[in-house]
Amino acid sequence: MKADLEAPLPAGQESYAIRCRDVCRSYGKLKVLNNLNLTVPQGYIYGLLGPSGCGKTTLLKCIVGTLKISRGHITVLGKPPAFPGHEVPGKMVGYMPQELALYNEFTISDTMIFFGRIHGLTLEKTQERLDMLVTILDLPPKQSLVRNLSGGQRRRVSLGVALLQNPELLILDEPTVGVDPVLRAKIWEHLVKIVKEMKVTVIITTHYIEEARQANVVGLMRNGCLLAEAPPDAVMKQHSSTTLEQAFLQLCEMSDQVGSKRSSPQSGPLENSPSNENGREESRPILGVEPGPADEVEWKVRARHMLPKCRNIAALMIKTLVRMKRLPGSLCFHFLLPVIQITLICFCIGGDPKGIEVAVVNNETSPASFSQSLLSFLDNSSVHQVPLSHADAFDGVYNGEYWGVIGFGKNFTSYLTKRMIQRQVSREVIDGGSVHVWLDLTSKMCQSLSWLIVFAFVEKKLGSMSYLVALPIKFEEPIYGSQNTDFTTFVTPGAVVLLTHYSSCLCSITFYLAVGLTALSFVLERKEGLLDRCWVAGVSSVETMLAHLFSQLFVISIQIILQLLFVLLVFKMPNEGSLVLVIVLIVLQGITGISFGLVISAAIDDEQSANQAALGIFYPNLIMSGIIWPVECIPYPLRYLSLVLPQTYASEALRCIMYRGWGLSWMPVWRGFVVTLGWNTFFLILAMVILKLRK
Ligand SMILES: Nc1ncnc2c1ncn2[C@@H]1O[C@H](COP(=O)(O)OP(=O)(O)OP(=O)(O)O)[C@@H](O)[C@H]1O
To answer: What is the pLDDT of residues 482-529, one digit of tens each?
Structure first.
């Protein structure tokens, strides 16, 4: 095995671009990279070959810094990947991941302009590079939408993105899959040309082993370690084979024979290249360096590196807006969905019952009787009266045909008159002078019905005499709110908060919930390799999150304006307090939603699970936040849980502002703001930590 590694190197090798030493990486218990050593000389094409699942992509991800290694050292262009101030990830590296990692709603031109912005290229420079790439890679017209391209065309666009900024290092994960042989030859020709002319270093994986003969060096990988690393001719010569494929097969057989005794190559000839000028940082710890004058400069570089770049945030935001523009139907739905929801709440919740079938058993026959007169006061649109006999009326209720029975005794008029004019009356007179109501109370709606009946009889009919039959309780003019405050009024502020929270929250985490564009973006971008690609291009997790937050903020601002217009102007919900406070609180709740969405999308990879997580949290939150029913009705242990939910205090604060006209000096109001801000900070930090930990 060692002999394989001792094949002569091409002349002129002076330094290395990539050096991996004893690199290990696992996914849980699965050890994917196993003490791997690899050296890619500067200005070479390095063909990384190996069977599917041997760990090539994992290695490339470790090299570009999207995955952290568990053990060992990696040096890329002189420093470890993601070293503060280092432009790997960044401008120095062009990365083509195995997934296509392209925005489907973009044209080819949009795609290049987006990545050009991230690399800091001017528009003219990007256009110039794009024209060149169209010729070299035989790309379709620049204005073609990516989603309309064939698989091979998309792969070429993806390769074009990697080549865009003329990087020093190109990392290409299977760039020639699905590309026809003529174009494959053209791509290799271009790679050979840029390596020769510009001293670019290329590391390329491919399933077409024979095409790797054009590489300067090949690395044959199996089970997470390198079996051989040498120029293709040397590998073939070593194994007396006429093809690389044969040589590779022999190597695999030998490796199987050696089995577990074999260790990964510890020292290949490529390693002997004079390395230390470029590999300076490799053995140096990233943290814990002794302070000195040079370190001061380094700290400044690090600090600058850590600060989010406006350029990247702007590029990501423009990207989101362009994508929205390309999906206008989806955009309208996105804006209208919360309005539709709030309209439905206002129309469907808390109103008076309409068209209820009620059986009437009237034993008084005279048309001038009180009972006839009272029945005429019942609102016909609410209660549809069906005159029936006693037996039919009760049968109808038992059969579910009527919601209840209203009954009058045959002496109702005379007994009621007695009740009102005599000081003392017998129980029989009270009973006979009362309206008897039997209700099917399996529906809460009938409770509203009973109040309707009382209201019709006592308030409307008896008018000024109503006090004679009233209960010994008097409800005076309310201190806050009005006598007409209904369930809708109670529920609306909470619903606005909730809808804002969830519409924005779902934006970040769930898949195509009506929103389409931005909603899905984070989880899908992650899944499609777009987040990784942007990260390798130099966009940090903080920049991604901030851009996402700002663009979502734009969307929820429009949603909030539309919701408030409907709630305040169309449905005439009262607002006694400051509209500014109302808007700020709702926007802050929107941010809670976005940041909560970011937590879920940072923790979960696929849209289905993200959707389930969002829904799983939505309902308990809706029920327990005091939005539908007051928190005071929740039993004690659960009430404590309710109080720590992000919407409980916010809904209360919003109700206090809108209906009591309270300002920030009132504790329930400022508490709503403070708790919301606290949740926002917590969710944003948590999302960032999860993103960092999951590398
Ligand atoms: N995110 C992940 N979580 C768990 N296991 C993973 C993950 N990514 C890759 N693996 C596993 O790691 C191993 C190496 O995968 P990798 O994608 O690096 O292989 P590869 O050599 O690039 O394969 P191919 O040529 O088919 O692309 C595989 O067994 C794969 O199942």
So the answer is: 655 554 454 555 555 444 444 333 333 332 333 334 445 677 787 888
Mean pLDDT of the chain: 79
Q: Which domain holds residue 443?
A: 356-463
- Which atom of ligand 1 approaches the CA of 224 most closely? 14
Single-letter residue type at 648: T
Strand order in the sheet with 30-41: 30-41, 16-27, 71-76
| Ligand 1 contacts CB of residue 678 (under 6 A) | no
Please say which residue of 414, 441, 463 terminates a domain. Answer: 463
Beta carbon of 651 within 6 Å of any ligand 1 atom: no
Task: Determine which residue's CA is closest to atom 20 belonging to ligand 1.
Answer: 53
Of 441, 463, 485, the position where a domain reaches its end is 463
Q: Is 49 strand, coil or helix?
A: strand
Q: What CA–CA distance (Å, rounded) separates 227 from 293?
A: 44
CA distance 281 to 284: 5
pLDDT tens per residue, range 24-78: 999 888 899 998 999 999 999 999 998 888 899 999 999 998 888 989 999 998 8
114 domain residue, yes or no? yes
ipTM confidence: 0.97
CATH number at residue 386: 3.40.1710.10
d(CA 456, CA 356): 15
What the block records as the tokens of 150 is 């064939």
d(CA 518, CA 601): 13
For residue 89, cis peptide bond before it (omega within 30 degrees of 0) = yes
Over residues 228-275, the pLDDT tens digits come to: 899 998 988 888 888 888 888 888 888 777 654 444 443 344 444 333
Contacts 24+ apart (CB under 8 A), 150-153: 151/178, 152/178, 152/179, 152/180, 152/183
CA 607 – ligand 1 centroid, Å: 20
